[in-house]
Amino acid sequence: FPGAGGGNDIQWCFSQVKGAVDDDVAEADIISTVEFNHSGELLATGDKGGRVVIFQQEQENKTQSHSRGEYNVYSTFQSHEPEFDYLKSLEIEEKINKIRWLPQKNAAQFLLSTNDKTIKLWKISERDKRPEGYNLKEEDGRYRDPTTVTTLRVPVFRPMDLMVEASPRRIFANAHTYHINSISINSDYETYLSADDLRINLWHLEITDRSFNIVDIKPANMEELTEVITAAEFHPNSCNTFVYSSSKGTIRLCDMRASALCDRHSKLFEEPEDPSNRSFFSEIISSISDVKFSHSGRYMMTRDYLSVKIWDLNMENRPVETYQVHEYLRSKLCSLYENDCIFDKFECCWNGSDRQVLIVMTGSYNNFFRMFDRNTKRDITLEASRENNKPRTVLKPRKVCASGKRKKDEISVDSLDFNKKILHTAWHPKENIIAVATTNNLYIFQDKMN
Amino acid sequence: MLGKGGKRKFDEHEDGLEGKVVSPTDGPSKVSYTLQRQTIFNISLMKLYNHRPLTEPSLQKTVLINNMLRRIQEELKQEGSLRPVFVTASQPADSLGDTFREAQPAFSHLSSQPLLPPDLVSTTTPLESCLTPASLLEDDTFCTSPTVQHDGPTKAPPPALQPIKDSFSSALDEIEELCPAPTSAEAVAAETADDDSKAQPSESTIQKPEGFLESRTAEPKLMDSLPSNFEITTSTGFLTDLTLDDILFADIDTSMYDFDPCTSATGAASKMAPVSADELLKTLAPYSSQPVAPNQPFKMDLTELDHIMEVLVGS
After folding, report:
1. CA of A287 to nearest chain B CA: how many angstroms apart?
2. B191 pLDDT band (50/70/90 cuts)?
3. Rounded to whole angstroms, how far apart are CA atoms A166 and A418?
């Protein structure tokens, strides 16, 4: 990227940042998921307080060719509320774990949002006109005295200020004993799956009172439990195929046509352990925190604690590419275990559908995020920070000094702030615009045009 | 994890622990390896048992930590030593140590008997000292024999089940530890094999967090007690043959079972004081075909349970 030749190298510039400026982070404001819709016009975030905030991209100003439209708040609503499970005497968090958009079919937009236990289908619709001129009601809604009505008129629609309304259309509840970690909409756009630690359920978007269990890895005796489901996703093109990843670093591909209960996988993807890297923490760092199919469906990407791996669906015994996100943490695993950072669940994403570009992105600590170019095999580390970020200024690459003498502008591993983690990133489906979530801020970067 | 925002400082001490993992057979680095392993073991225990969240703990995290502990235990077993030195200062554990002996002499059978003062070795049922209604509600659950470990469990144990309240879960855990499920033969074997080298429960008690009243003492016992963490999330029936509706204390005052684990410094037994053990035994005796004796499982049906509940609540 930096300084290298090649017209394809993207130069990322700061565009916008959303969220509070204070250092004191309100717990409810912690961003827990980020997702572009299918056109990229809308960008949704979910937070720990159960709220969903949707940003809308301004229509491109044809005269201003230097930048793409900015994202502004379009709708904010409370998706989930905290609940209390009286039987277990435990709270059910309202934190939004995932948001997934449905493709747009009419004027309204639909998305699925989920917390640990309940999935909801939300309809977001615009209202920019309202009927006026009722016969029996005043404009403010009060009823008119019928005796004062002397003429009749037909109410007409008149323009009003744009109002964006979100309403819950379906609530899919009571199907998960364990915590939901993933939802994924099928390519048939009629069904979707939801996965918790031990089970995966299949739903029809129209039907809320039943779901079908398609994967169940709960052992008869819970004492024997050693592995949980960490993520699941439908294949982008093949509506009977899905994958799920585990805490032991395996990915299973299942075909729903094979049987009703897909406990037996069609394929099992697992890389043999590298004996030279064996440690107490081998299992924990192999736990996969995210799995994403490529747009073509030929590849899938997994994220474990230290690396990103690209798998060819035709090859089960090892990934075709492995990228080290922050290998310098390998010698710090004990501390990271102690402070729980080793359990952080980083997500990963592919670039948009531009076929020329093949880049994957993921987050790290110290508000750093990483991109790996699969074509050039080059990688870059960037930082999401309000400092030194002026619009249309190209971001300066960062470098972490693992050991030895620290060069100027490098940051030593010991100075990394492990409280500043980037877990959620998203890439615009069509353009080189990315959304990067720090703890409570959302950064939008875009490539430098012309 | 959030809020402080302070930069982490590199702890010099940990440098030695965290380097490349060395084989345990290397000479001088064996100490380092053992120390590292020990530290990780302690950290893992603290993570599991010091955590009392308002929300359910992450099952994935619990599973990974459990696996870590099991792996280390396996290693320790293979190396022949079964009692690691607990590096972390466990003052609460020490203070609880005596009371644990007192509260749960049921565990006396787990360690070599001679190690315990004779007066604490209970020859009668565990009911005497760790009474809870949950134990009575269990369908043919527990054995009264102190030697049950070696005779094999004499019940068909239900899986570790969903507790209604903390007191229930602790009672269940005690019961489980008396009669582990057949599938944890590993744990049973471990105990049989290592009885001699085992520490007294009280010596090796770990830091006792609030909320967990059972004694998680001898390591192999962890094998049994670990899974109870999973059970927070299970929704399987609390009782195998009985439904909750049969027993639900809808009209029963359960205030005596509501106790604040934080303040319970003297273990479960003290809180169960309202019903005396003798009284209960007398109540139970007529219902079993034989007097309560070792090696006899308890079997009761619903009417008996109702009566017992009346006794417990009525007093």
Report:
1. 9
2. very low
3. 36
